[in-house]
TrEMBL record:
Keyword Transferase in record: yes
Molecular-function GO terms, alphabetical: acyltransferase activity, transferring groups other than amino-acyl groups
Xref: InterPro entries: Acyl_CoA_acyltransferase, Bact_Acetyltransf, GNAT_dom
Organism, scientific name: Acinetobacter shaoyimingii
Protein name in the entry: GNAT family N-acetyltransferase
Source organism superkingdom: Bacteria
Length: 146
């Protein structure tokens, strides 16, 4: 089983990314998602990568490199991570995360963090992250201003 990981090509990949974003629980019109990603691409600390299997996009990850007050060195934040539901449970997520770790190591990143919603449909994802060596370390809060 070979998984190809490559940087997002926004023009060619937007329809696939839109479909996967809906699977994350965030249905978004393609033109809105495209604008968001274009905004993110203005900052070199943000990157989006896709996972391909047999020339088909089956997942993507949105990453942010940042410094924090808590740790020395840069941290890689997984802002979005999804494997198409048709391919879950087959080892693709594990392979994709391993490649993300390799990307981080090549850039001397000290750790990887992520947040995952506390909705019931995310419980399988939480177990997956734990199996990949992630530890539960915090509780997130949000306040909408508009």
């Amino acid at each position: 089983m070979t998984l190809k990981v490559r940087p997002l090509n926004l023009e060619n990949d937007i329809i696939f990314i839109t479909h996967l974003t809906a699977q994350l629980g965030y249905p978004t019109p393609p033109e809105h998602l495209k604008q968001r990603i274009e905004n993110l691409q203005q900052d070199p600390k943000y990157s989006t990568w896709v996972a391909e299997y047999q020339n088909q996009i089956i997942g993507y990850v949105g990453l942010i490199q940042q410094f924090t007050w808590q740790y020395d060195g840069e941290v890689l934040v997984i802002q979005a991570f999804v494997i198409d539901e048709k391919y879950r449970g087959k080892g693709f997520g594990k392979l994709f995360l391993k490649e993300i770790e390799n990307i981080a190591l090549r850039q001397n990143i000290t750790s990887i963090t992520l947040n995952s919603g506390n909705r019931p449909e995310r419980l399988d994802a939480h177990e997956f992250y734990k199996k990949q060596g992630f530890k539960v370390t915090s509780l997130g809060f949000k306040k909408m201003l508009h």
